[in-house]
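This section describes the prediction task in plain terms. A model, or a person checking by hand, is given the sequence of a single protein chain and must write out its three-dimensional structure as a string of tokens. No templates, partner chains or ligands are provided. The sample shown here is typical of the held-out split.
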Amino acid sequence: LSNCNVSLILQVENWTQLLYIKYSWVFNGRPSFLLQDTRRFVSQRTGNLYIAKVEASDVGNYTCVVRNMMTNATVYSSPTPVELRRDAVMAEYEPKIEVQFPESLHVTKGSSVKLECFALGNPVPAITWRRTDGNPLPGKMKINHSNGVLEIPYFRPEDAGAYECVAENSRGKNIAKGQLIFQNVEHLHWVQTLKDAHMAIEANLQWECRASGKPKPVYRWLKNGEPLVLEDRILVEGGRLAVSRINLLDSGMYQCLAENEHGAIYASAELKVVASAPDFSKSLVKKSMLIQRGGEVIMECRPHASPKASISWRRGGEFLKDSKRRTIMEDGTLRITNISKSDGGRYTCVARNPFGTSSSTGTLVVKEPTKITVPPLSVDATVGQSIVLPCEVSRDSSLDPTFKWFFNGKLIDFNKQDHFEMIGGESAGDLMVRNIQLKHSGKYVCMVHTVVDSVSAAAHLIVRGPPGAPEGLMVGEITDSSAQLSWGSGPDNHSPVTTYTIQARTPFSIGWQAVRTVPDSVPGQMFHATVIDLNPWVDYEFRVVAINNVGVGEPSMQSKQIRTKAAVPEVAPGNVSGGGGSRGELVIQWEPIPEELQNGEEFGYIVAFRSLGTTTWKQTVLASPDASRYTFRNDSIPPLSQFEVKVGVYNNKGEGPSSHVVVVYSAEEEPSVAPSRVWARTLSASEIEVYWEPIPQTASSGNIIGYEVLCWEEGVQESDAEMVKVTDTVALLSGLMGSRLYLISVRAQNSAGAGPSSPAVNVTTKKPPPSQPPGNIEWNLTNSKIFLKWEHVKAMGNESEVTGYKVSWKYKPQHFQYHIWIVPVWSYKIKKSVPSDMTQNKPVSLLCWFCTDEDSCLSISLNTAVVKRPAVFEPA
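The expected answer:
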């Protein structure tokens, strides 16, 4: 459809101007525009509507709509009908390209180019785009819904080349080609555009538009799409438009056109000229104005008026004139200074222009000024103290003051600050600062607000506290026992540093420890010291702590770890002793030197000894720093011989001191005789008790420290015997088997070893108790008495006969208390009164053991029969 010949406000002079015209079509008068798809296409170059294949739903009236995008003006064509012929059938045919782009097109850098392509055909052709050189299409490319428009924004040199539009259906295909040529010129673009203006009649208008491009653009001005007609009031200089004393006829849409040989661009803005009488409806004079006596008031008068209104003020019926304290400013504002009570009253602003007069009235109320009568005073405080900064005011009795406190410029939020609290009455807002910390130093401002005025007063709080950490700790020269330190001062927190202390830490110390220095006391003005009495060959870290009259400050950052130089050992081993061992041995012991006192690498011990009364020392070197014992062996050494012994130290720097000389005895001789009068008795099936006479303490036996009791079954080698060590002359052997013959011997022991064994004695353990528990246990409760009976237990041939039974019961489970009776073997029934303190509704536990004799029964609890039954007992 090409019936879109309409008269447009904008004269189209070249195809680039079409970028500011938008074409649409309306179908059958519907309010929405016709949607484009692969079958329907609207060319934005010609305005024509193309339908690739007409269908029955396309029958109707079509209206072309043209809109000027700069002026927003819109025009409509007369309707064009589309009818479907009933006497013909549309045959299939290959695509016929109806809309195509120019064969060559010059495009400037940075501009946007749109290529149109659409084809008629049956079936409906599919439109695709490609570059003939095989390169992919630009990634920034945009294709519309109908695929009929290819847009390339921000054109660059790499976008230039040949492009093809391919229209294809089942009947064939057609191709449209075109060349995009990059033109290396600066495209036209706006540097400054126009803005809409709403202005009063008789005002002066000034607009300026500026564009950049090569070649330099020229400007033209349009009004409502037509060239602007110049008058005496209208001045055009390039992109600058000036209109003086504007009137209602000047209203309209203005366009600034900038063009050169490569194209044109437009900037649009609307001018609305307003002519009206003064109007206070949106800007009344403030109805009530409160001001303190001696203050200043500004009464604004800003009516809406076109042209601008002349302003005058009156108080009551009297118009005001400028005076020493009263000024009517150019914009109509009334300013009154040094206000007194007599200035109170009603003030009316009167506005006039050629279209009318209007007024607005407000009331001025004069109040007494607010004054801070007790301001906060600057104060010094110490960390941990609490202070109150006062803030009391005198004020007009009709005004309620609001107190606010600021700390270092920030409003104090009393709901979030634990240290701050505001106290006082109606005319006071004192600030209490509790448990003051260093962070509370600074400027405090009390600000008092009323609806009339605001006043403030400031004070400084200086908080004195322990000094901050010293800075920049450095370690200088290092020896085997000293290190030179230097540091810088930290904050003194308003109290000068009096002294510094130095602390050290090693891998062997528990935390930080104070160390000795030169000078012994480092004054607060000195920033270096020498640490002394350090251990050689030890890793140290140092830190410095400052002290002032308030307290001890935070320590500095620790220094890097350093190691003192090595030196000869200075500490001799302690607690040198010895003795013991086997025959022919001299055992020497000592406490090893801690690592922090070894003073260097390759640390070891020098052990020296000699027989008492001789002059020549024998010595040996032990290269282990952990050694604490040395044994010298020589079979010719008599037992308990006396030796003088000393232990020294050494490292890679040389030998250190030796310990004091001590006398150490050589090893004893093993006991030469065996214990006598050894005898044993059986206690039960698993226990035997052994007795013997002690060996007299003689030189040959040495110092007897205990005995070894050997026990083995008949037929077992003595070397496989079980051994029990005791220090007394009696031993209890347990865990034995019943009805077994055991051999037992005893031998004495001293520090040199064990002596000969005594002749073995024989003893047989008792038979074990019966393996079966009592059976058929029954019990009942009658008149506060418990009756219990059971069947007699018969022993097996290898078991001992039953001599009695043991019955136990508990009635206080939480205490585990038992009552036990030995029952003779001939009695199989017992009765027992229930104790009077038994609580009701408690379970009773009965346990029954059999016993071969009283001792066995009390010492063993085997084959237990348990009877549990809850019952209710009446007190006996």
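For orientation: Helices lie at 854-859.
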